[in-house]
Design brief:
Strand order of the largest sheet of chain A: 1-2
Helix content of chain B: 25-40%
Number of helices of chain B: 9
Number of helices of chain A: 10
Shape of chain B: globular
Largest interface: A-B, 29 and 39 residues
Mean pLDDT of chain B: 92
Oligomer: heterodimer
Structural class of chain B: alpha/beta
Order of helices and strands of chain B: EEEHEEEEHEHHHEHEHEEHH
Radius of gyration of chain A: 23 Å
Radius of gyration of chain B: 19 Å
Strand content of chain A: under 5%
Strand content of chain B: 25-35%
Distance between the termini of chain A: 56 Å
Low-confidence stretches of chain A: none
Chain lengths: 257, 258
């Protein structure tokens, strides 16, 4: 049962919730940054047309050779690696990935034990950011890839015919338009990251959910603490999507008459 | 106006699709001289656009050579005058070949001015001021100086295509390639685009124009190519092609379009 008394008790721990919120925001911000960079690399890998064994296809006229040599000539290693990555990370639970990063990947590495901003335990924070980034990159990369593919090929042709390199074409022509198209999906993913970061309390990151847990252990007040946590999450996610909506409107200038 | 200074030499160009079942270009050879206004006509699917798009390698030919200033741009490297092997930089060649597309392909997220100054700044390293000054003077020439800060969507088709032409002109190309520049336009806008093209031709620009505008071919072109089934069937002056067509295929085509 929720009681006013319970809320008063829970509010007594407001500092924990505040610190938890700062921690959640930091987790999400670093995840968004690293996740996005990794996602961009993955998306470009999936679209890269680099075929190291192309020379095996020595037939003329766009004919593709049959058999093993033919398949090998069409093999795109970058695309293959990125596809495997995306499939694996989308097909396994976030918590399993987090534990694998924390207990296996970083088990042998001694991370410096200091407190980020004076309150976040660095050695717990880093595995959390890594796991969340690896996971969100898989989803974000698919969003970015579809965004890039949604841009009319004529744009690239025009850019290249003006002498722009493929990299310049990506940077100035394709990506700005692609990002604009996928902003709603990206906003969604950012909100998801904020919410998913709650899982990090299982490895001892002191974010919002861990504040709930502390209140529970200390006072046996759980319902009220959860309601407060939910409100704090909402106060983080709602402005996030609104801010991105604002950017979206700004970027749509070229679409209006 | 045409000299015998060969700018582009197309030699035995072939482009096959579907394991050779479809021959978009079937052994086409043609020289494009400096100052030429070469108009390519023919029924749809005859390979006109493929030929044009091969010239700046938007289409990678299956076989054959394209020599631009004597350098085979279909190869990865060439031997320079000092006898050294150099890499063929396709970006460098594309700068010198302006291209205008049927669907304009303006960059919708950039203003008209930004559309025009992007490549000169990023590729040629021009300053923003110099590029802007040049862009404004070009806009003035096509009567669109008041639209510099508009976005492409705010323009009519004819205006878009005129912008696409001057955007290509910003790079000071040696040859302009036009891929059916008036085919996506409302009829009343065709004239304004053709007018800009005529002015370019009068200025001595080397042009290759794929078009269905027979009037333009006759009036402005100094050479006309007729293509069908991926082959170059007949070529000559406009007077020869329109006045005295030799092949039955061309006679049949002209009967339908004129």
């Amino acid at each position: 049962m929720l009681t006013v008394e319970g809320f008063k008790t829970a509010f007594g721990y407001w500092q924990m919730f505040l610190e938890g919120m700062i921690c959640t925001v930091s987790l999400s911000a670093f995840t968004v940054l690293f996740g996005f960079i990794l996602a961009l690399v993955l998306a470009l890998m999936r679209l890269a047309d680099i075929r190291p064994f192309r020379f095996l296809d020595n037939t003329q006229g766009g004919e593709s050779r049959e058999g093993f040599a033919g398949s090998l000539s069409r093999f795109r290693p970058l695309n293959f690696i990125a596809s495997v990555y995306v499939e694996v990370f989308r097909a396994t639970p976030m918590m399993v990935q987090l534990f694998i990063v924390y207990y296996i990947l970083l088990a042998g590495i001694k991370l410096p034990t200091f407190k980020l901003f004076g309150l976040i335990r660095f050695e717990r924070f880093v595995p959390g950011v890594i796991a969340l980034s690896l996971n969100s990159a898989a989803y974000l990369s698919e969003i970015i890839r579809s965004g890039i593919q949604s841009i009319d090929g004529g744009q690239t042709e025009a850019a290249r015919s003006l002498g722009l390199s493929q990299a310049q074409n990506m940077r100035y022509i394709v990506l700005p338009q692609a990002i604009k198209n996928i902003l709603p999906a990206i906003a969604n993913e950012f909100v998801t990251i904020i919410k998913e970061s709650s899982i990090c309390w299982t490895i001892g990151v002191q974010e919002i959910m861990s504040a709930v847990n502390s209140v529970k252990s200390a006072t046996f007040t759980i319902g009220e603490a959860l309601i407060i946590a939910a409100c704090v999450y909402f106060c983080l996610t709602f402005p996030t999507s609104k801010i991105i909506e604002h950017f979206e409107r700004k970027m749509r200038r070229g679409d209006k008459r | 106006m045409a000299t015998n200074d060969k700018l582009i030499q197309v030699q035995h160009l072939k482009k096959y699709y579907n394991k050779g079942a479809l021959k978009a270009l079937d052994d086409v050879s043609v020289d494009i001289n400096k100052g030429d206004v070469m108009v390519v006509i023919g029924p749809s699917g005859s390979g006109k656009s493929t030929l044009l798009r091969s010239l700046n390698l938007l289409e990678i030919p299956t076989d054959g050579q394209i020599l631009f200033h004597g350098i085979d741009i279909t190869k990865k490297s060439f031997v320079n005058k000092q006898g050294k092997t150099e890499k063929v930089d396709i970006n460098l060649h594309r700068q010198k070949m302006g291209m205008v597309f049927q669907h304009f392909n303006l960059f919708p997220h950039k203003t008209i001015l930004d559309n025009m100054i992007l490549a000169p700044m990023k590729v040629l390293g021009q300053s923003k001021e110099a590029a802007t000054e040049k862009a404004l003077s070009l806009l003035k020439r096509v009567g669109l100086e008041d639209r510099a800060h508009a976005y492409p969507i705010q323009l009519s088709g004819g205006q878009k295509q005129r912008i696409a032409i001057v955007r290509a002109m910003m790079m000071e190309p040696e040859v302009m390639l036009f891929d059916e520049p008036t085919s996506a336009l409302d009829p009343e806008m065709v004239g304004e685009v053709l007018e800009v093209m005529k002015e370019l031709a009068r200025g001595g620009m080397t042009m290759v124009v794929v078009t269905h505008e027979m009037g333009f071919a006759r009036e402005v072109g100094n050479r006309v190519l007729f293509m069908a089934y991926g082959k170059l069937v007949e070529q000559g002056t406009p007077a020869e092609i329109f006045g005295d067509p030799k092949s039955p295929r061309l006679q049949d085509f002209l009967k339908k379009v004129l």
